[in-house]
């Protein structure tokens, strides 16, 4: 498709491939935010085509390019422009703050095509944006003709917690209620960047600081009727002095990954956990794991990940 040019101009034309290269270097979001699409129809048509053919789109680029999520007019314009042109996108990654903006957008025609995968990310930086912008899922779309996503084949949620993480538990429940409309089986990745870690704590402390504990999110998701396919529990910096207390709720998934030093395991219960099929843990001495997994009748194998040489050893169970 040729680039449209102003025939009345006496200035030399920039070759098409250079224009494409400029847009690729700048990025479609910054290109749009800078107003280059309004310089000429040629620039605008290139941007349209770049978004039209995109199979993957990472909405974190909107935040990285300095577009202020707390300024609704500018932010809504950028989101509307981008989403309305992502006709063929199959895989999308977006922070929770952007998902909230899309939900609250006044343009109810915004709708994603069928997605093979959607990854929603929640971390401290995004949490600050949510608090500053007073975003919420209270005003979520519910009408059939205004659903934001047509369908999502694979939904993944990534949460990184630290000591200052303060996403309200009620807001997370509203998020879960909203997003489970499109998929009731999730992959959940929890990353710990706290100083204390995920070791054993009395229930009262977990309640008071529930935003920083993995088990809070797992319990909430289970309570809301969402099935966990993969559950990954990770320590952010590889600190071997921190440990994780293995609650029974962590066995309510199909595949469990524990990239964390295991401390105590929950005491035996009569409840059965038939969903758990496999577990991958990093190599470590621990004598209580067999007892912990004894009530998982469908567990076929435990894989031991040797961190030093990145090898995996399968252990019959």
From TrEMBL:
<protein>
    <recommendedName>
        <fullName>F-box domain-containing protein</fullName>
    </recommendedName>
</protein>
């Amino acid at each position: 498709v040729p680039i449209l040019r102003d025939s009345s101009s006496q200035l030399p034309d920039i070759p098409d491939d250079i224009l494409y290269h400029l847009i690729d270097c700048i990025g479609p979001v910054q290109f749009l935010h800078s107003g280059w699409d309004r310089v000429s129809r040629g620039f605008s048509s290139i941007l349209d085509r770049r978004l039209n053919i995109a199979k993957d789109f990472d909405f974190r680029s909107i935040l990285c390019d300095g577009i202020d999520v707390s300024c609704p007019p500018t932010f809504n314009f950028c989101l509307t422009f981008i989403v309305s042109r992502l006709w063929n996108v199959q895989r999308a990654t977006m922070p929770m703050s952007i998902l909230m903006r899309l939900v609250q957008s006044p343009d109810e025609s915004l709708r994603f095509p069928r997605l093979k995968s959607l990854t929603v990310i929640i971390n401290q930086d995004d949490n600050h944006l949510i608090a500053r912008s007073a975003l919420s899922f209270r005003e979520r779309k519910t009408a059939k003709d205004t659903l934001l996503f047509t369908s999502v084949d694979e939904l993944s949620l990534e949460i990184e917690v630290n000591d200052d993480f303060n996403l309200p538990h009620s807001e997370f429940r509203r998020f879960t209620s909203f997003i489970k409309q499109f998929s009731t089986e999730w992959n959940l990745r929890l990353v710990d960047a706290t100083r204390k870690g995920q070791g054993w704590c009395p229930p009262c402390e977990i309640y008071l600081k529930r935003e920083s504990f993995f088990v809070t999110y797992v319990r909430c998701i289970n309570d809301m009727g969402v099935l966990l396919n993969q559950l990954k529990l990770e320590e952010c910096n590889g600190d071997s002095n921190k440990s994780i207390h293995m609650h029974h709720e962590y066995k309510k998934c199909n595949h469990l990954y524990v990239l964390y030093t295991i401390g105590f395991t929950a005491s035996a219960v009569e409840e059965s956990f038939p969903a758990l099929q496999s577990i991958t843990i990093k190599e470590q001495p621990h004598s209580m794991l067999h007892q912990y997994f004894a009530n998982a009748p469908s567990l076929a194998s435990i894989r031991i990940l040797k961190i030093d040489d990145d090898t995996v050893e399968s252990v019959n169970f």
